[in-house]
Amino acid sequence: MPEEAKYGRGRCCVFGLENIDTDVIIPQTELVTVSKSGLADGLFARWRYKNDRIPNPDFVLNRPRNKECRFLLAAANFGCGSSREHAAWALTEYGVRAVISPNFGEIFFRNSIRNGLLPARIAAADYRCLASLADGEGGIDDMIVDLTAGQITVGRLTVPFSLDQVDRMRLLTDTDDIAETLLHRTDIEGFVAADRIRRPWVHQTLWEG
Amino acid sequence: MALTLFDKIWAEHRVKTLDDGRDLIFIDRHLLHEVTSPQAYDGLDRMGRRLYQPALTVATEDHVVSTRPGRYGADFENGQAMLDTARRNGRRYGIAYFDANHPQQGIVHVMASEQGMVAPGMTAVCGDSHTCTLGALGAAAWGIGTSEVEHVLATQTLVQAKPKTMRVGIDGCPPQGITAKDIILRLCRQVTIGGATGHAIEYSGSYVRRLPMDGRFTLCNMSIEMGARIGLIAPDETTLRYLEDTRYSPLHDHREAALRSWADLATDEGAIFDHEMSLNVSALAPQITWGVTPDQVVDVDEPVPPSESEVARRALEYMGLDAGKPLLGVPINIVFVGSCTNGRIEDLRTAAAILRGHRIDRRVRAFAVPGSQAVRAQAEAEGIAKIFRDAGVEWREPGCSMCAGINWEFVPHGERCVSTTNRNFVGRQGPGARTHLASPAVAAASALVGAIADPRRL
Predict the structure, then answer these.
(1) In chain B, what residues touch A21 (CB-CB under 8 Å)?
(2) Domains and CATH numbers, chain B
(3) How confident is residue A174, by pLDDT bands cut at 50, 70 and 90?
(4) Which of A152, B10, B68, B118 has the smallest set of CB atoms within 10 Å of its CB?
(5) ipTM
(6) Is residue B291 within 8 Å of residue B188, measured between CB atoms?
(7) Are the C-beta atoms of A116 and A92 separated by less than 8 Å?
(8) H-type helices in A49-164, by residue range?
(9) CATH fold label, A2-174
(10) CB contact under 8 A, A32 and B22
């Protein structure tokens, strides 16, 4: 199954803090680039490195068993704050396929969907349940994220996650959103033609820049 | 049916409802800045797409530009490369582009409002979460990611489910010296950082009706700090007076039609919101953050709250504060006045009124960064810049500066800053920076004292 290949099975790292904002996910010193790639090095940079880019052995992603981290489990409101899509780009380039949290910052949520990164919303009680499975290195082995069924499974525990059908399809099919919208080009052009008469001030701009 | 202000704006911009129930929404104003646009232009190029509505698209430089006097760009190589890319893209696509030295340049949200680029009833988006600021004009304005920037460049629309609505009624008459910043910080504490996620907030009530535009921008600006992508205020006489003086105001060439169109921009009696809440500000004290999220707020004369949770304990550890001890008197290193939250003329006047005739404490470095060239020019004409300089405050060029540190203007590691900005996240103002969000009045008072101070007690 394609979704099995895309989300599938692997190790999950647990971030127990609430409100992990996009400034923490990708700090300002890491995002001055005109490219979408090369951002993985800056992921969680302030937590991940000591001075001079030496890995911080205490940080969850740096612990030996967490080297191949496929999923993140995070406390509530992951990805709040800045709109920087660099956060989603950095996570996907690092190899993260899904972030699981009771809820997400809304712009981060949209950005994730646009980049094939699954933002899986789970109940707060299920978050606590999953987090309690973390081993000594702050990770959970052999987690299965089933996008089609909307379920996360670890051993005998299965919890549901919510994702609306459109977002699910978007993740399964890798749609070109702009091409989809351009199918409605006639409607958009019709709207603009009528709007030029209805609200001419919107369209007649005389900016001097 | 009775509709909310937001319902009306949304309906007016609905091109159609798609089969999946989402709406295709027309975007009246697309604002660009250098940090979140390059990958979007790249996407257009790669797919051979054109920019559909260049006349509705406008770009400026704010995040990466240096605010050093005499600047024309960034102070570091990657930053300059980013500006060069933005300038090249602006030229290539033929859009209005306000570069660092243009007399109308400014922080994108400050510029777009004071120049009259955004007007009541419009939709506006930008690759920046503080785009909600522009809702103060009675517009629906929100922040988007770079993929959506590309989508708007190519189609002038966004596909979106309609957000839920929340009304916040703010009533009462706050004591002298209490500003819109105190009110919004208080609201953040009440709603919490994620409490309004998925909502468009309408601010209403007697306090809001009396509030001048600069304060309304401050209020709407921090809607995103409660999770709401949109915050808006119904236009009224105050809004129209503000628009009269803006360069690109629709009132100049389309007065009658625009006024007719805006007349209905208010929430109908009996309209239903998904959530309603209220705040009375009559006895409000100056507010300040103690932790690392914008909802970790106390009255400036309250002690640091107890660290009962892991979140609070870690916040206090990062901030170098002790639970239960007073915040007043905690020594500070830096004061920053500026940003899209508090970088407007009224904010600078507030700070200057406190600083006039005094010198800041010698242990403090203070920076005043106007939100735009227009604000800078006005502040210089009014003598405010001179008051800052005479007080020992560095007077700089417009930009985002130390709010996000993307231009490498940082609060140094471990130093404590009272900042009029919007986010106190870990590392937001620089690696290891300790931020206390507060009003320009608290910031100025703290600069004089060299420690967190209460402007009512100077």
Answers:
(1) 293, 423, 425
(2) 5-161 (3.30.499.10), 287-457 (3.30.499.10)
(3) confident
(4) B68
(5) 0.96
(6) no
(7) yes
(8) 86-94, 106-114, 124-131
(9) Aconitase; domain 4 (3.20.19)
(10) no
